[in-house]
Design brief:
Blueprint: E1 11-12, H1 17-22, E2 41-43, E3 52-56, E4 60-65, E5 70-75, H2 77-82, E6 83-88, E7 91-96, E8 111-117, E9 122-127, E10 130-133, E11 136-147, E12 150-167, E13 170-186, E14 189-206, E15 210-214, E16 217-224, E17 228-231, E18 235-241, E19 246-248
Parallel strand pairs: 3-7, 3-9, 4-8, 4-10, 9-11, 10-12, 11-12, 12-13, 13-14, 14-15, 14-16, 15-17, 16-18, 17-19
Antiparallel strand pairs: 1-6, 2-5, 5-8, 6-7
Pfam families: DUF2807 (PF10988)
Signal peptide: 1-22
InterPro entries: DUF2807
């Protein structure tokens, strides 16, 4: 049987209905299938086999950990036309196609992408959007935020956690970690006061603030006007340059 091949793995969240029908007879051997359309909602539940989520743009991404993979997008039809979602190297990528010159540049009302997955090892957000994660459990969790957006993890239970913020965005993390490494560059901050770490380190460059809870040893490095707070009985070592201060309760 002749098999139809997709020219690329990334698939738009919304495609023209006629194209979806034309490709409905294609085999899915080893490739992501083209997804059909609905007015303002795209069903992308055939996307699977990823342990990380990477999003870029102004949209909202809601990640929940559960027994099965499922991805859906809903919102402003104009936003959905530009959203691209695909899996590459074990990571679900969510982004927007660039605007073509001459197109109407009126802002749209955005979209919400809901992602369900069995386990989460990494989450990355770039731009002005928001990402929330209900829980993460396992050996490692890598978190990255670039831009002015917000990233929040409701409950983490991991051995090693790494969290980095670049720009003016804010990150919030709750849960427990064997070790936690926090870094902030710019005016953004990391609020991990509700994250209890066995040990950790905080690295600050700029005017942002960071908070972490620990009863172990925490190394704090500050360059700039940002402040670092360590809550609990931790023993802190501090190296600071600038007006920023490290406050350790231990």
């Amino acid at each position: 049987m002749r098999r139809c091949r997709m020219p690329r793995r990334f698939i738009p969240a919304l495609m023209m209905g006629g194209l979806a029908v034309a490709l409905s007879g294609c085999s899915e051997s080893g490739a992501q299938s083209m997804v059909g359309t609905r007015a303002a909602t795209a069903d992308l539940s055939d996307l699977r086999d990823f342990a990380g989520v990477e999003a870029a743009g102004p949209d909202t991404v809601i990640v929940s950990v559960g027994p099965a993979f499922n991805v859906t997008a809903q919102g402003d039809p104009e936003a959905l036309k530009r959203i691209e979602i695909g899996v590459k190297d074990g990571v679900l990528h969510i982004g927007r196609k660039p605007r073509v010159g001459g197109m109407d540049r009126q802002p749209d009302k955005g979209a919400t992408i809901r992602v369900a997955m069995p386990a989460l090892a990494s989450a990355s957000l770039a731009g002005s959007g928001d990402m929330t994660v209900d829980r993460a459990q396992g050996d490692t969790l890598d978190l990255s935020l670039t831009g002015s957006g917000n990233l929040a993890v409701a409950t983490a239970k991991v051995r090693t956690l790494k969290a980095g913020v670049t720009g003016s965005g804010d990150m919030r993390i709750s849960g427990t970690a064997g070790t936690a490494s926090l870094s902030a560059t710019g005016s953004g901050g990391i609020d991990a006061a509700a994250l209890k770490a066995g040990s950790g380190d905080i690295n600050m460059l700029g005017s942002g603030d960071a908070r972490l809870a620990s009863d172990g040893t925490v190394a704090v490095h500050i360059m700039g006007s940002g402040n670092a707070d360590v809550i609990g009985k931790a023993k802190c070592t501090v190296a600071a340059m600038g007006s920023g201060k490290a406050r350790c309760s231990g």
